[in-house]
Specification:
The protein has helices at residues 48-59, 61-78, 83-120, 158-165; strands at 139-141, 149-151. By secondary structure, it is mainly α. Strands 1-2 form a two-stranded antiparallel sheet.
Amino acid sequence: MSVPPPHEPPPAYGPAQPAGLPQPAVPAQPYPGYPYPPYAYPPLPTNTMAIASLVCAFVFAPLGIVFGHLSLSQIRRTGEDGRGLAIAGLVIGYVVTIATIVAVLAGTLLFAWAARVVRESTDPGGAGIPRYHASAPYTTESSGGAGHPVDVVHAFDVANRVQHVA
C-alpha cells in the first residue's frame, strides 16, 4: 500500500474504492448550497389535557384518569407532545384510585370488626359494654311479638347487674 502524495484530496469516508475508479468528492460544507444549517422547526405544543391529567392524578385521581384518556386520544389525532405526561397521569390515577378503594374497604372491615368486639364483650372492665344474654335474670321478652329477648336496664338495678356478671 502506498501513501498518497500530500497534494491529493483525502479519500472519501466509507469502504475503499478499487484503484482506477473515480473517488467521490468530499463536500466542503455539511449542507451543500446553504451557508448555515437549516433552523429547526419550533417544538410542538404540549397537550393541556395531559398536564391536567398529571396534576389531577394527585388531587382527584378519577378526574386524572378521565383527562388521561381524553388527552391520549387528542394526542393521537393532533400529534401534540405530552404522551408521557398523559400516561403518567393515567398510571398514578389508577394506582391512587385502587389504593383509596382498598383503604376504604379495609377501614370499613376494621370498623365492623371493632364494633363486633365491643358488642360481644362480656368483661365489664374491658373495652366494651357488658352484654347480657337471654339466660340472664334481667331480660324480658320483647313486646313486639317476635319473642326475642331484649336487654332491660333499670337505673336502680345497674349495680346489681354488674355484681351478677362478676
